[in-house]
Design brief:
The complex is a heterodimer of chains A (339) and B (81). By secondary structure, chain A is mostly helical. In chain A, 65% of the residues lie in helices and 9% in strands. Chain A has helices at residues 3-37, 43-51, 121-146, 154-175, 183-200, 212-228, 232-239, 249-292, 295-335; strands at residues 56-60, 63-66, 68-73, 77-82, 99-102, 105-108, 115-116. Chain B has 81 residues and is mainly alpha-helical. Chain B has two helices and no strands. Classes of the chains: A mainly alpha (339), B mainly alpha (81).
């Protein structure tokens, strides 16, 4: 075997080992909290801890990456410090400069209002997602400059079919002739959600696209683009629906107006629920081991969790696809000319 | 109070079961129709499979609504108890 091949296998083994280590230790964490508190293991708390946002990135039990806390309050003005200040050496919550972090909520000890703009775990993962996208797509753009008229290479040939699929099968049929104006946004949307979903499946990572605030912002993007690019036919369909008796129009108007709002809301809730519930299902199955205190159940739940995770890989892709497809359908409805 | 919470947790379980029935019927119908369509037109296999997976994912999300609601009831129930 060549030296290069051995190196590759070593790398793969190290990655596998790290993944095992992270997933094992998150289980140990659950078990440790079970033993130390002296009461029954509570799967609800463990799952909530995993799917919610946090002011520090707990990769595995005891290994917490401190993140910057950015606060604004009237008496102190803007303050920036590390989230590790909120914990003493025994990992107990302590007050720092008059602020207290309790259940991931920062408050002032004297009860005055405080605005929290911290870089939390989810914000960090938005940055990681964006960095990965910048790296990947700059590499693809370089590839297209270098291989003009030649077959794509490397990361370029990995993503070309996906980009072409989104362009030809999703965006072009639903928007129509003027699709190129919206294509960059829709491709960004697809890859942001897809990479975010896949990042969320890595053990120790944050449940980024399963946060309703993030999906709400993505849905707001759809809402604004749809309504700002709405043509005459779109608005006349809402305010003066053609083809119905005149006395029915005042009744249809509120329904149509609600319909404008329900489209982005359904996008928001669909992505949030499917990703969060996927995490809940996986963690619930893992919890079964600790509820039954048995290695036999542990073996069984490992098999089921592996299968569920494979389905989650599929769901991660389908949800990104569905979000992009519905966004382009809504844009297509808005830009449609009268016919 | 404790009794109420016991009922709440029981309701979460029954709700999860009902949601599973609904999603099962939905995905079953999609799968059945897709199989039929593929048997009639084997050349459209790829397109039907893609559409089937997408619709199945949409139905699955409805089932997952149930999972999330049941989880919320469960955490509320255990927190109060």
């Amino acid at each position: 075997m060549t030296k290069d091949g051995t190196l590759k296998i070593c790398k793969k083994l190290i990655i596998c080992g790290l993944i095992c280590l992270f997933s094992m230790s998150s289980l140990q964490r659950a078990y440790a909290s079970d033993a130390s508190e002296g009461e029954g293991f509570n799967p609800g708390d463990m799952i909530n801890h995993h799917i919610k946002d946090a002011h520090g990135w707990e990769i595995t039990h005891g290994v917490v990456v401190p993140l910057p806390i950015i606060l604004y309050s009237e008496p102190d003005g803007l303050m920036i410090f590390s989230s590790s200040n909120f914990f003493n050496n025994g990992h107990e919550e302590v007050a720092y400069k008059g602020y207290l972090l309790s259940h991931e909520h920062i408050s002032r000890v004297d009860g005055q209002p405080v605005y929290d703009f911290s870089i939390t775990k989810n914000v960090l993962f938005i940055f990681i997602d964006a960095t990965i996208m910048l790296l990947v797509f700059f590499a693809i753009a370089r590839g297209y400059k270098k291989n003009v008229g030649k077959a794509p290479k490397g990361v370029q040939s990995l993503f070309e079919p996906v980009i072409i699929y989104i362009r030809d099968e999703v965006v072009k049929p639903s928007i129509g002739d003027n699709y190129q104006k919206y294509l960059p946004y829709l491709l960004t949307l697809f890859f942001f959600i897809w990479f975010g979903n896949l990042l969320g499946l890595i053990p120790g990572a944050a449940n980024m696209t399963g946060n309703i605030a993030i999906t709400a912002v993505l849905a707001l993007g759809t809402f604004f683009i749809t309504n700002f690019s709405g043509k005459r036919a779109y608005w006349s369909h809402i305010f003066w629906t053609p083809g119905v008796p005149w006395w029915l129009r005042p009744i249809i108007l509120p329904v149509e107006l609600i319909g404008v709002l329900t489209k982005p809301v359904s996008l928001m809730v669909r992505l949030f629920v499917s990703i969060t519930a996927g995490h809940i299902v996986v963690l619930s199955l893992v919890s079964l081991t600790f509820i039954f205190h048995s290695w036999m159940v542990g073996f069984g739940s490992t098999v089921i969790v592996t299968l569920i995770t494979i389905i989650e890989l599929l769901v991660a892709t389908i949800q990104a696809y569905v979000f992009t497809m519905f966004t382009s359908l809504y844009i297509g409805m808005a830009v449609e000319e009268h016919h | 109070m404790l009794m109420d919470m016991q009922f709440a947790v029981m309701g979460a379980g029954i709700g999860a079961g009902l949601v599973a029935i609904g999603a099962g019927i939905g995905i079953g119908q999609i799968g059945g129709s897709a199989m039929e369509a593929m048997a009639r037109q084997p050349e459209a296999f790829g397109k039907i499979q893609t559409a089937m997976l997408v619709i199945a994912a949409l139905v699955e999300v409805i089932a997952l609504f149930g999972v999330v609601v049941c989880f919320l009831i469960y955490t509320a129930g255990t927190a109060a108890a």
